[in-house]
Amino acid sequence: MRRPLLVGPRQVADDGTVFWLTLAGTLAAGWAATVWYQERRRRRRVRRRERYLEGLRYLLDEKPDRALEVFHGLAALDDETVDTHFALGSLYRRSGEVERAIRVHQNIVARNGLDPRHRDAALTELARDYFRAGLYDRAEELFQQLAKGGREPAVALAHLVRIYEIQRDWKQAAETHERLRAVGLPEQPGAIAHYYCELAEAALAERDLTAAHAHLRSAHREQREFGRSAILRGDLARLEGDTPLALRLYASVVQRDFHLLPVVLPRLAEVARQSGDESVLASVIDDLIRRGAASRAEIAYAAILSGQFDAPAIVDCVREWLQIDSDLKDLTGAFLPAGAAPSVEQLRALSGAMRNVVLRHARYRCSQCGLDSSTFLWSCQGCHAWDTLRAIAALEFLPRAARPRSRQ
To answer: Residue 391 — φ and ψ, nearest 5°?
Structure first.
């Protein structure tokens, strides 16, 4: 029979020492690994921050190509750096490489476990990419999704409004503008009145007078004193045979918004012809001058812009303009006998000649972005602002080479 194995105190002590040494070694190794890993992450963060600042410097120095190289390297270095991906996608879009921007933002959206805030931002950027690429149906789908459940619905709705403006879907633009107004302040509160006026113009072109009345009532609810709406109401009154109402509406427009005279003047002249009373136009012009809304020279230039300078009242304004403007006075004096005044036929011929010069150059300029236009538009093609085009000052239509140079 075997005797039991006895463990002495010395062996127990040796086993305990081994255990504690093993534990201490394991802890030391774990601590060393942790320190090494943290140091490695710190160095990577420092290196990434330095590269990120380098990319920003390239941006500030207007070197987007170099900035793209830096940010692309950062994205490859740390694929989880979401902010870097956003910067990279934005740079691609700004440099015109929209397809690359789309791929970058699609990769962000497809990432699992992404913070909802970052996902909304990625969807917004992806929708902007589609918008920039002209893929309005895809952009509309994403912006609609963001408008319903996103963190910034006002941003999405503002982009939707712009999409519908481009597509000339004025009904959708008006409805979306209403939604935008419910969640935030639109950049152009008066734009919705223009949408209804666009709908009214389309109805007038189709001779749908009932629909035109409805759209103009909606525009009037949005803005009480609105020049474009009053002009269209005047057009509608003319179609319905109410010449006195049309005259009152046109007159109220130029009294309140003189810059619209080139737009209204042809209509006023037509109303005068329909009524058979040329004094109608003269009374409107006299009222403008009496109220101080405009001078005769300004009326003459507006008439030349619009091509309506045959009426006697307009001819009188052109004659006074020639007497006031020294350059035009010298020009006409060179072709007339000394002390002779130009005849009515000569004044009309001179007006036609000036109009030919005007037609070769920009006649209107946006008061917001400065873009020039050869025709009057309700919406600027540059900044897309509504009702910002104004007639260029009288002598600015002269060619630049013909203007006197200032002496140094």
So the answer is: -65, 135
Q: How far apart are the first and last CA of the chain?
A: 127
Contact 157, 147 (CB under 8 A): yes
Query: Are the C-beta atoms of 108 and 127 separated by less than 8 Å?
Result: no
CB 216 within 8 A of CB 236: yes
DSSP state of 293: S
How far apart, in Å, are the Cα atoms of 231 and each of 172, 226, 237, 244, 261? 24, 9, 10, 14, 11
* Separation between Cα atoms, residue 284 and residue 274, nearest integer Å: 16
pLDDT in tens, 2-20: 555 455 555 545 666 776 6
Q: For residue range 310-349, what is the model confidence (pLDDT) as tens digits?
A: 888 888 888 888 877 777 777 777 777 776 778 888 888 8
Q: Which residues pair with 365 in a beta bridge?
A: 372, 390
Name the token pair of 402: 């013909």
- Angle formed at CA 197 by CA 288 and CA 299, multiple of 5 degrees: 20
CA 28-32-37 angle, to 5 degrees, is 150
C-alpha distances (whole Å) from 273 to each of 177, 267, 307, 330, 401 are 41, 10, 16, 34, 40
Cβ burial, residue 380 (10 Å; 0-12/13-18/19+): buried
**119: closest CA among 139, 141, 149?**
149
3-state secondary structure of 134: coil
